[in-house]
C-alpha cells in the first residue's frame, strides 16, 4: 500500500507538473519571439534613418531617368494646382522671367487668361461654362476673391480649383491694384498664356469664344482705356508730389477692365518706378485703379495701346457706379443692340463697328434670361 500510495503520489505529482512546464515553455517562446521582433524593428528604424540621409542623393540620380524634374516639359507644363506659399514680392519676381530667345524649342498654343476679380461667388458661372465649352486648349482661368470666401464649384466646373492665393481688396484703394497685379502674375506662370483680360463677376461675353479669341489674338495692340480728362475727376486727382516721375501732362484715366498682351503684363508686375508713387500719393479719393494702369502704360508703351476698352458699361444713369442690369432688362432688343454694336472704333488701324467683346454690370437675376437668349444673340 505504501508503495502503491507512493507511486500514486508520484503519478499525481507528475500530473500537476506537466501543464506547468508547458506554460513555462510557452512563455519563454513568446518572450523570445518578442525579442526577435523588437530586434528586427530596431534594425529597420536604423536602416530608415540611414536611408533618409542617402535619399536625396539617390533621388538626384533616379529622377533624371524616371521623373525628369529638369526636363523641358517640367518648365512649360501649366501648374495643376494654383495654391502656393509665395508672397507678392516672390510671386512678382517669379513671374518676371522672360525668355530671351524668340524661337521656341517646343510647340506652343497661345491662350487667353481670363482673370476674374471678385468679392465672392460667380453668379453668372453657368453662362461662362457654356461660353468656354469645347475650347479647353485656348484659355486659362484665374479667380481672385476675398480670402474668407470658400468656393463650392463642382469638380466638373471650369472654375473648380482656379482660385489664386488672395488678399482683401477694397474698391478705390491700392489693394484693388495689388489684386489685379496678383492675377496677372499668377497667370504669367503659365508660359502658354499670351493675352490677359481683367473681368468682374458681373461681366458677360457678347460673342462666342471663337470670335473673341480671333479678335484678341489677331490684334496688333492691347485694349486699355486711356484718356486725358481735364475735369476734377481726371487731372483734379493728380498729386503734384508725384512729379517728376509722373508729370500732370502724363496723367491719364481709364477703366480697370482691360486686356494686355504678355509683354505689357510683365511690365505691370515688374514696375518699381510708378507703382511706389501711386501707392504713396494716390489715396482713396484719387481712385488709384482708374489711373495707375492707364498712366503707367501710357508713359511706357503708348504705341502698343488702342486707348479703348473691350468691356461695355452704361454710365448714362449717373452716379459713382455704372448701371446694373437685372432680369427685366435682359430682353431681345437689349441683347441684340449689345451684340451688334452701336459704335465705331479702330481695329488694326482700320475703322470697324466690331468694338466690344464683353459687358457689365449684370446682376444674378439676369442669369435665366441670358441663358435663354444667349444662343440667339451671343452665339453660344
UniProtKB/TrEMBL annotation:
Localization of this protein: Membrane
A GO term from the CC aspect: membrane
Keyword Iron: no
Highest rank taxon of the organism: Eukaryota
Main localisation: membrane
Membrane topology label: Single-pass type II membrane protein
Record's keyword terms, sorted: Glycoprotein, Glycosyltransferase, Membrane, Transferase, Transmembrane, Transmembrane helix
GO MF assignments: glycosyltransferase activity
Protein's UniProt keywords contain Glycosyltransferase: yes
Regions crossing the membrane: 24-46
Official protein name in the record: Core-2/I-branching beta-1,6-N-acetylglucosaminyltransferase family protein
Protein source organism: Solanum commersonii
